[in-house]
Design goal:
Blueprint lengths: L1 H7 L5 H11 L4 H7 L3 H11 L39 H4 L17 H10 L26 E3 L2 E5 L2 E8 L3 E5 L5 E4 L3 E8 L4 H4 L3 E11 L5 E7 L13 E7 L2 E5 L3 E2 L3 E5 L5 E7 H7 L3 E13 L6 E9 L4 H8 L4 E3 L4 E5 L2 E6 L5 E3 L3 E3 L11 E5 L5 E8 L5 E8 L18 H7 L1 H7 L2 H13 L5 H8 L3 H14 L2 H14 L4 H8 L2
Parallel strand pairs: 1-4
Antiparallel strand pairs: 2-3, 3-6, 4-5, 5-8, 6-7, 7-13, 8-12, 9-10, 9-13, 11-12, 14-15, 14-16, 14-17, 15-21, 18-20, 18-22, 19-21, 22-23
């Protein structure tokens, strides 16, 4: 396998390994062809397929005559731009004349395409699948949508979003970038869930973005726009994107109704779990896969002993929600707002340089799309306490130019968010003991679940302890959390205090924990 990777000049064998496991181990003919040296003819065919394509058009229905593509039959050709001949004028806006165009609900012929996209989105049509023809990808601008800010809730460290659409129309979530086209007033509930790549293996596909579990009790969603991370220079007609639809019956793949510069659009008739996927063969042919990415920065408080400050650097695809990442990081760090967009290569190594940092670790790290559910940092910098401005550079291995750079003015720790540690002279265990009764009585169930996740993440609790605590009643759970942190020492108590002050900043206990000696 290493010889094959070297001969093909892949920067990293991980993509090929994934392809090998999927297609060769499964005795897939494409895998056997690869090992038999037959990939070159496939590459030649792929290159021929990438000749400048003709302008995309929707296929004619078998029932249409030669003039159907222009808006109707020959007798109504002059009226094609208006939707068809006189006999089919009423159907023109939905796809062509009544005589033969059954694709009106998908945009219809050229004369009725605009009306189909904007006026008939929820008026018919079934959800597309892998065996259902949606027609050519249409690289059109997105619909006009109304932005909304969803209601966000956090339960057991899982972020959920909620919004009620006031009427029919297109609505875009400011947190996730998802666009919902609805036929009437309706409530939307959605959250990200973790991919199970085993579901994708037999089809030779890999995740291309977050996976969303979407509910709408009114069943009013007829179109779904999922944000992609294709770079601005990408040829969207050959990007290999599709939408995985996961339900109780398994996984199906929906071909896009259209792809815009920001979203992949599919028609849906029912909701469950949806996410973008790529064809792995697209990576095999072209050896690299570039994506539009983002660099996110999270700053922790000064360490009370070393006084160093920790800066976490995350490299993520552009279509990952910053709000959700911040939710996962906020218990111990503070998000630093900075220009973040860049272009990254999947399965490529990167490095970070910062002259002011005392430590940058690791020296190099691999960027991939597998970053859920916790979105861990790819790099961590340790900054001296006197640092007020630092210069950060991200470089791709083997290239001298920078992928991303920023001159960062470090903020002071945000006291309102509970970033600073307890006073050096205060034993955090004593602080916890002093508020024990009130903590047990007043801390809420959601905060306790988040504290359990935090204590497990910081290795104060092991998975068995955390799982056992979750099954206890609220008061017993609060007693266990506080008493365990006290028993496990000053560091464990400090983690609990910082986490509680961050997660419940309005609690009167916060002031007592931060000031009482």
């Amino acid at each position: 396998m290493e010889a094959i990777c070297a001969a093909a000049s892949w920067a990293s064998p991980s993509t090929f390994t994934r392809f090998y496991n999927v297609n060769v181990a499964a005795s897939h003919p494409l895998g056997r062809a690869l090992l038999q040296g037959l990939l070159d003819p496939l590459k030649d065919a792929d290159q021929a397929a990438q000749e400048p394509p003709d302008p995309p058009t929707l296929p004619s229905d078998p029932g249409d005559d030669e003039g159907g593509d222009e808006g109707g039959d020959e007798g109504g050709d002059e009226g094609g731009d208006e939707g068809g001949d006189e006999g089919g004028d009423e159907g023109g806006d939905e796809g062509g004349d009544e005589g033969g165009d059954e694709r009106g609900d998908e945009g219809g012929d050229e004369g009725g395409d605009e009306g189909g996209d904007e006026g008939g989105l929820c008026e018919g049509g079934a959800e597309g699948g892998a065996d259902e023809a949606h027609g050519a990808v249409s690289l059109v601008e997105p619909l006009d949508w109304e932005d909304f800010t969803p209601e966000v809730s956090l339960e057991s460290w899982k972020t959920s979003f909620r919004f009620r659409c006031p009427s029919s129309g297109a609505f875009r979530c400011s947190s996730t970038g998802l666009v919902f086209v609805v036929s009437k007033e309706a409530e939307l509930r959605y959250r990200t869930v973790q991919w199970d790549e085993a579901l994708l293996q037999s089809s030779g596909r890999t995740p291309a973005g977050p996976l969303y579990d979407i509910e709408c009790p009114e069943r009013a969603v007829c179109e779904l726009h999922l944000p992609h991370c294709e770079p601005e220079t990408a040829d969207l007609s050959h990007c290999g994107l599709a939408v995985a639809h996961i339900s109780d019956s398994g996984v199906t793949f929906l071909e896009p109704l259209r792809i815009t510069q920001s979203h992949v659009v599919v028609r849906v008739s029912g909701l469950s779990v949806f996410g973008l996927v790529w064809q792995i063969l697209d990576w095999i042919y072209h050896k690299i896969k570039s994506v539009s990415g983002q660099v996110l920065l999270f700053l922790a408080a000064k360490n009370p002993l070393s006084q160093l400050r920790k800066l976490n650097v995350l490299l993520l695809p552009w279509n990952v929600s910053v709000d959700e990442v911040e939710t996962k990081q906020r218990s111990t760090t503070e998000f630093i707002d900075a220009p973040s967009r860049c272009q990254l290569v999947v399965d490529q190594h990167y490095s970070v340089t910062c002259p002011s940092a005392e430590i940058v670790q690791p020296e190099r790290a691999l960027f991939d799309m597998d970053n859920e559910p916790n979105y861990p940092p790819l790099f961590q910098l340790r900054l001296p306490p006197e640092s007020s401005r630092v210069s950060i550079r991200v470089r791709e291995e083997g290239r001298s130019e920078e992928v991303w750079s920023h001159e960062l003015d470090l903020p002071e720790p945000s006291l309102s968010r509970g970033d600073s540690p307890p006073p050096p002279h205060a034993d955090p265990r004593s602080l916890l003991r002093s508020v024990r009764i009130d903590f047990i009585e007043k801390v809420s169930e959601p905060v306790l679940h988040q504290l359990l996740d935090l204590l497990q993440q910081e290795e104060v609790l092991n998975p068995g302890e955390a799982e056992s605590a979750r099954e206890k009643p609220r008061a017993e759970k609060a007693r266990f959390v506080l008493d365990t942190a006290v028993k496990k020492g000053q560091r464990a108590a400090s983690v609990l205090i910082r986490g509680f002050c961050r997660l419940d900043p309005s609690s009167e206990l916060r002031g007592r924990l931060r000031t009482k000696v």
